[in-house]
Structures are given as C-alpha cells and as structure tokens.
Amino acid sequence: MAFTIKLMGIIDIVILILLILAFLWGFIKGFGKHGVGRFAFLGGCLVGYFGGVPLARVVMSTSFGTDTLTSFFASKLPTTSSFTTVLTTDMTSDTNQSLMSTALTELKFPTFFQSMFITRATVLDKTVSSALGSSFSFWTLIGFFVLLFFFLTFFIIKAICSKKDGTTIFGENGKGFLGRFAGSVSKIVIMAIIIFALMLVLVLIDQLTYSKGITNVHDWLTRDLTLNDSSTFSIGRLFYNSAASFMNWITLRLNK
Question: Most-buried pick from 29, 173, 215, 223 (CB within 10 A)?
Fold first, then answer.
C-alpha cells in the first residue's frame, strides 16, 4: 500500500521538534567517556537478545534441553497430585494450561507471570512436572546465553572503543565527528523512549475517558493522528499505536 503525504498534526510536530532537539543536543555534547559504557551496554543488550535467544532455542531442542535439563528441574518440583498429573495429548488444550497454572499457583508464582512459563513448556506428553521442567529449562538457557553474549559484547566493545592513552575512538572528550554522530544517535534513542512513555500516559487517558463516555480526547486524537487512515504516515500514530499495543498486552496479562 502506498502512503500519501498529509499535513502534520500537532502531536507529529511536537515529536519531530523533540527528536530534532535531541539530535542537536547529542551533536553538541558529543559522546564522552561515559557514553562508551552506554554504547557497550546497548550493544550488549542487542547482541544478547538477538544472539542469545536463538541459540537458547536451538540448545533447548536438543536432548540436553528436552531430557537432561528438563529432568533435572522436574526432579526438584513437589510430588503432589498437581505435579504428577499426566497432561492430555492436545498441546494447545486449555486443560493443560489449567493444570500447569494450578501447579504454578502451588509454587506461589504470581498470576501475572504464569503465562510466561506455561507458553514456554515444550514437553507436553508427560506429567505437569515435566512440562514445567521444560519451561524452567528454556528460561534458564535464555538467561545463560543472553548474559553470556551480553558480557562478551560489552567488554569487546569497550576494548575496541578505548585507546591505551585513556581516550576513545570518539575523539577528545567524545567530540570528534564519530563522537558527535554517536551522541546524536544516543540522544535520539533516549528521546524516543521518553516519547513512548508519554504516549503510554496519553493512551491511558484516552482509554479511561472513552470508557466513561467522554469522547473529546479520543475524537481529537483520531483527527490529529489520523487513526482511521492507514494510507498516510504519521510518526505520532506510530508511537501511539505502539504504546496502545503495549498497554493492551499488559491488560491481557493482568486479566489472565
């Protein structure tokens, strides 16, 4: 679908101004010695997630994950009827989820976090203990490989960016060309996170007022962000829809 150009709404203009100011602020301030640490931390997080998670999935699919590690965690669980019950053969069965939820409740797991473990269970043709053991195995592997990739990447980036004389590749006081560019990118990312947080508040206000029959806020947002017209691009709508999706995800988890 081709996007058409539209006049920017108030929210679009405000967001654009904030991002431009963030870019200029970062360009002027540069990327100092502490900036290298933030850069290494961000790089570690990205590599940790996009490298560690896929590797954890691969290891989990091997006999080490589905048998050895799963059996280890399953052996640590209680032997009450909630854990020794054999699951049904239907892998998507609501009964399976209910049985695992009951067992997690017995372990005093908060309801909010239970779905994280229920949906990650891979051994579903044995007992509840085996199912939960496979879920615990999955999250253990996720944590191990994500942290492993994070720390490796963090220290490698720190080593690459740092020079023997105590300076960095970003120039003196982080104000070389590369330092100013990195500073601008860093500040834009920070500003984008702030804008997203503000959008969460705006989404919450919209939902609360609309649920009480007050449509002024919702009607204005619909017009300003062209919420009903996906053929046009709006940076404000992009942030708003992302915040709304995140808010709905939280609501669904709380209602489980």
Answer: 29
Q: Measured between alpha carbons, how far is 105 from 99 in angstroms, rounded to an integer?
A: 10
Structure token digits, residue 256: 């489980």
CA end-to-end span of the chain: 36
Torsion sign across C-alpha atoms 234, 238, 243, 246: positive
DSSP 8-state secondary structure symbol assigned to residue 68: I
Q: Give Cα separations from 66 to 5, 72, 105, 206 (angstroms).
A: 52, 10, 24, 46
Three-state helix/strand/coil letters over 84-145? HCECCCCCCCHHHHHHHHHHHHHCCCCHHHHHHHHCCCCCCCCEHHHHHHHHHHHHHHHHHH
pLDDT tens digits along 80-94: 988 988 887 665 567
Q: What is the mean pLDDT of residues 203-209?
A: 89
Tell me the per-residue pLDDT of 163-195, one tens digit each, with 9 for 90 and over. Answer: 666 566 665 666 666 677 777 887 888 899 999
* C-alpha span between 52 and 142 (Å, rounded): 7
Q: Which amino acid is at 50?
A: F
Q: What is the mean pLDDT of residues 229-240?
A: 83
CA atoms of 56 and 61, how far apart (whole Å): 9
Closest CA to 183 of 60, 24, 61: 24
- Torsion angle, CA of 169/175/178/180, rounded to 10 degrees? 150
